[in-house]
Write a structure and sequence with these properties.
Oligomer: heterodimer
Number of domains of chain B: 1
Strand content of chain A: 5-15%
Largest sheet of chain A: 3 strands, antiparallel
Largest interface: A-B, 36 and 45 residues
Radius of gyration of chain B: 18 Å
Order of helices and strands of chain A: HHHHEHEEHH
Shape of chain A: elongated
Strand order of the largest sheet of chain A: 1-3-2
Chain lengths: 161, 110
């Protein structure tokens, strides 16, 4: 069962890339997807029930849409303002993280780095070390609220529980 | 029609973000600040224009182009932070920038 999530994802990606749904494409796509799933499923998936839960996929798509519109727009405008005005107050601060799952941590770290203004320098089990373009506060809880609470909330909904 | 307009707007946003990112790289004087400017160039300057290309191609019915654009956009979004993170970690290890506030370095010294 562990190969099924990878197979489905590979098949959907194959159909998206080719951009056609002729029988030839569907057959080659299915064969490649099954091979890819059998090869990589055991490394990528620990719990097939969790990976196949549609609610998690819906949460992921909702988070993706919110991330590329609202969150990125706000961060871009802030950094563009700083590029023009030249006002910066950089520093590396320690922010506590609460997610435990590997994929969830990856999602949180990537979300932080992809938002202009914050870059993850290092991450261990309890803390993320974040380079922040404007250090508004040195209080860990307040920094957590400013930088990654939103990402963690969605990462938990998608990957944990 | 509406999809082409959205696509053109996204392409224009990408051009503006690329230009501002390039200006930022020259204006900022330390490594980490330049990294932030580069993020404006990668996410704003590559992810959104690729989505814009996908919208324009969808209007024309060129589905393979749509697929490859969307996939390239997603790949950019997943892989660029890995590079940024590696650069930031290496810079921190090599102690390139002297910063007043650096809690990561303080932790390392103990």
């Amino acid at each position: 069962m562990r190969f099924l999530p990878v197979t489905l994802l590979a098949f959907i990606l194959y159909i998206i890339i080719t951009g056609s749904a002729t029988p030839y494409d569907i057959i080659t796509g299915a064969i490649t997807a099954v091979v890819a799933g059998l090869l990589f499923g055991r490394y990528l998936v620990k719990n097939p029930q969790k990976a196949l839960n549609p609610a998690r996929w819906v949460a992921m798509v909702a988070y993706f849409i919110k991330y590329i519109t609202v969150i990125e727009l706000k961060a871009h405008l802030d950094v563009i303002k700083r590029i023009i005005s030249g006002e910066t107050n950089p520093g590396i601060i320690k922010v506590p993280i609460t997610v435990k799952d590997e994929y969830a941590k990856f999602l949180v770290a990537n979300s932080i780095t992809n938002t202009p203004g914050t870059v993850t320098v290092y991450m261990d089990d309890e803390y993320a070390y974040v380079n922040w373009i404007d250090v508004k506060t040195r209080d860990p809880d307040e920094a957590r609220r400013e930088i990654l609470e939103e990402f963690e909330k969605h990462a938990k909904r998608i990957f944990e529980g | 029609m509406i999809l082409t307009v959205i696509g053109l707007i996204l392409l224009a946003i990408g051009a503006v973000c690329d230009l501002l990112g390039a200006i930022g790289i020259h204006r900022f004087n330390t490594f980490y600040l330049r990294l932030h400017a580069a993020t404006v160039g990668t996410v704003g300057g590559k992810f959104y224009p690729l989505l814009g290309v996908a919208f324009i191609a969808a209007e024309q019915g060129l589905w393979p182009v749509v697929g490859i654009s969307v996939l390239a956009a997603l790949l950019v979004l997943v892989t660029t932070p890995v590079g940024s993170h590696a650069l930031a970690y290496a810079a921190s290890k090599a102690r390139i920038v002297e910063m007043e506030l650096d809690e990561f370095r303080g932790e390392e010294d103990v």
